[in-house]
Amino acid sequence: MTLMATSNHPGSQSSFINATNQSVLIGGIPFAYRDLGPRTEVPLVMFNHWGAVLDNFDPRIIDGLAKTRRVITTDYRGIGGSGGAAPLTVGEMADDAIGLIRALGFDKVDLLGFSLGGFVAQDIALKAPERVRRLILTGTGPAGGTGIDNVGSVTWPLMIKGLLTLRDPKFYLFFTTTANGQRAASEYLQRLKERRQDRDKGPTPRAFLRQLKAITAWGKQAPQELGRLRMPTLIANGDNDIMVPTVNSRELAKRIPNAQLIIYQDAGHGSIFQHPTDFVAKALAFLDA
């Protein structure tokens, strides 16, 4: 294992917007990550949405969680600062993630996955349950879940709308069209611009399309045996998720034993970005329980 860090004090940063970009080699491929917060025994490893790079993690959520625990954020293979080609299946992303957890020397971790990251987190928990202490799944759904294989047809028109209105498509994809939703969208998108230096590279069109193939394949995949998941699980979504329909979050809560479910009202796919303070408080209470 080779660790290449651009700082001698990777744990000394006070906030996500100035966290050092680091890299760890897994099977000869560099994986980009950032490492924040106190050196707690069980770190929280976070996995993000389709097309996301490190600078698409919400700094309010990362900083809130990193007040009391070590938080690792990472780029999937083939995207942002990570090398290689983006995998065409969620299963390969999960295998990479298990490799990352091992390479960083963690025996046990908590996982937080948003959207595509929630697919990946479920797969990690099923493949390596002994490594996962607690699981948080947000804006996500099970393999074969309702409408997941339609994400492309939902997304493209709203991406074009974004181009035509000169707005980030996340305005339309992650948030409701109400005044509350649009205000939350503006605030969230401003937060994503707070980091000024050493920003991560955006996704290439090729990586973006390869990830879409992986998402579509997950939507068509046979359901997994989620009843095997024995770790405590927290599920969160908005009541109006158009990307991974909210019914999927209810389905996860039914199928994962003793899962807790939070549904935010007048909120969409990015409900946790609409309610970062409340979500951080609930997530920390769950992780500390």
UniProtKB/TrEMBL annotation:
One of its GO terms (molecular function) is hydrolase activity. InterPro entries: AB_hydrolase, AB_hydrolase_1, AB_hydrolase_fold. Residues 43-276 form the AB hydrolase-1 domain. Keywords: Hydrolase. Signal peptide: none annotated. It holds the Pfam family Abhydrolase_1. PANTHER family: AB HYDROLASE-1 DOMAIN-CONTAINING PROTEIN, HYDROLASE, ALPHA/BETA FOLD FAMILY PROTEIN. This is Alpha/beta hydrolase. It comes from Pseudomonas lini.
